[in-house]
């Protein structure tokens, strides 16, 4: 990596020698990082990016090295329904006490993610000692899932509600979306209980016949439309 190479695209007498390390770092690695940053900026608006920075302050790795009370207070102000004005008055002091407490507790020194942090707080009883901090950790755990779930639903709506189905009722569309979005869960349900449920809903002129033992394949085909 320390070997010198000549820069292409220049005249022979103007070429400047530089190392392979410099070439791969500046010409390739930095370029890729710039592209990733540009895509992230295009993908996420400034408000979402700020929320991600705030959530990162709860990262327990490296002994809570990213912990920042000001940014966590910003996160609390974004969600005033979860943190009232009174909560925001007590939250800074509770955050200060929390970070001092967990840094002195060896049980929290090996925690590497928010999920494990929440579990350890419940196990040690700190979720009751620092209820506002624990509420913030719960919020941080839910936010990425909630954001992804909303995007997932809108993507599913584009598939389910096509031009041929654009007049379906809201209840029907909602039921169809649930089946489509949660198809992994519905694949575990056998056909026979579904048939029995429909059969018992009201008196019918004929009995619904039991399907052959291909329930998983049948449901998979129906779920995937």
TrEMBL record:
Superkingdom of origin organism: Eukaryota
Supply the source organism for this entry: Perilla frutescens var. hirtella (Perilla citriodora)
Which Pfam families would you find in this protein's record? Dimer_Tnp_hAT
List, in alphabetical order, the Gene Ontology terms for molecular function in this entry: protein dimerization activity
Question: InterPro entries under this entry?
Answer: AtLOH3-like (IPR055298), HATC_C_dom (IPR008906), RNaseH-like_sf (IPR012337)
Protein name in the entry: HAT C-terminal dimerisation domain-containing protein
Domain HAT C-terminal dimerisation, first and last residues per copy: 127-185
